[in-house]
Known about the structure:
The chain is an alpha+beta fold. The protein has helices spanning 15-25, 56-65, 68-72, 109-121, 167-172, 232-240, 243-254, 302-323, 330-359, 363-378, 380-391; strands spanning 2-11, 31-34, 51-54, 76-78, 80-85, 91-95, 104-108, 126-129, 134-140, 143-148, 151-160, 176-192, 199-205, 208-218, 221-231, 261-277, 281-282, 285-287, 293-294. Strands 1, 2, 8, 9, 10, 11, 17 and 18 form an eight-stranded mixed sheet that branches. Strands 6-5-13-14-15-12-16-19 form an eight-stranded mixed sheet.
Amino acid sequence: MKEIYTNIHIIGGGLIGLATAYCLSKLSYNIVVSDKKSTFADLNNKDDNRTVAISEGTKNFLEELGVWKSLYKNSEQIKEIKVVDRNFTNNLVFENKRSKSNLGYIIKNKTILKKIYLRLKSMKNVTFISNSNVCSIDYKNNYIYSKSNVSLIKSDLIIAADGKNSKVRNIIKTPLYKKNYNQSALVVCFTHKNSHNNTAYEFFYKNGPLAILPMKKESGNFCSSIVWSNDADILNQLMSIDESELINILNEKIHQSVGKVKKIFSKNLFPLTSHLNSKFYDKRLIYVGDSAHSIHPIAGQGWNLGMRDVKKIFEISKKYHELGIDLGGLEFCKKYNDKSYYDAYQLYQITDKLDYIFKLNKPPFLFIRSLGFDILNKNDKIKNLISDFAMGV
Ligand SMILES: Cc1cc2nc3c(=O)[nH]c(=O)nc-3n(C[C@H](O)[C@H](O)[C@H](O)COP(=O)(O)OP(=O)(O)OC[C@H]3O[C@@H](n4cnc5c(N)ncnc54)[C@H](O)[C@@H]3O)c2cc1C
């Protein structure tokens, strides 16, 4: 078994783990990234076409890190968001008239992973360990030790970035609040007849929201992705029906907003749960991204929230690095927790309540929502506040 010493051990090399490694490598720390998967950034996986909506706030941070240019080329801009409650008589349109910036950018998860991984691979202070499933964590003489099936790693700090079912969290026994929505999200990537005109749509149906996100053209075809939250049983059935039948159902649901659906090129189902750890730190350990919190995808903000954690780690580490203070000490871990916990708590509550409010189906609630849409349509100030929220600025 390999025994390694490193300053920082990042457990989990997903979107957030790799971004954290990239930031901290710039401060010349020695970093090990371990993952239970056999390959980091699996570029050949044709079935995984998941996308994230990059907010303006995250874009600014990626720009600061010097990776935005290469991501921008592979992303599609969102210039307008149309929100429809039940039917088109009740709708809201968001544009960003105030500045030149867009409302967001849609990019494939695997493109972000690839771009960051390739940069990290060329760095001498970053080591990758694959097929590594962490099984225990111990402490000795101001170091934290993690043992997996392939290695024993001694470090000053562990950053847990191992996703919403975090094994690190189980080992440390950090309590969490968890919610099961008893629903799933169906993610479908498809080609369609008309241009999306850089518009994202959010249809609020009685069982849950359906979002259409504009993607970059592929082989000359207009492409978009759908994220549809609905009862798990219904979506399970949709996963097994013929493509032509699914296309008919989607055409009915998306109201020709991007013309007819032509071809589906990937579909995936995700159970809808959310959680919030009781704290984002322990001794010589911090949680980041989905290992700390996961939220309802209604506003497409989960990864952006994780990137805000990464930014906070980067800012605090920079200061500690300049002052030569121990990165894994209790003060460091607590500081990160204090800066990130409330942000996550707030977004957790907002997304959870948004889902609840838009599922209310009785006439008084439909009327109140329609009144709210009317007021918002006449009030640019409130609409701007909502666009700022969507943009993460
Ligand atoms: C349907 C859906 C749509 C979404 N849309 C958006 C969106 O539009 N915008 C947005 O901002 N967010 C969105 N999100 C959320 C976003 O996908 C997640 O927040 C983000 O992927 C979390 O990244 P992560 O790196 O923290 O976790 P993950 O991507 O889950 O990565 C965790 C990594 O840890 C590894 N790992 C797991 N267990 C172990 C172990 N025991 N040992 C070692 N390694 C381990 C895994 O292999 C993986 O590589 C969406 C989520 C869903 C479900």
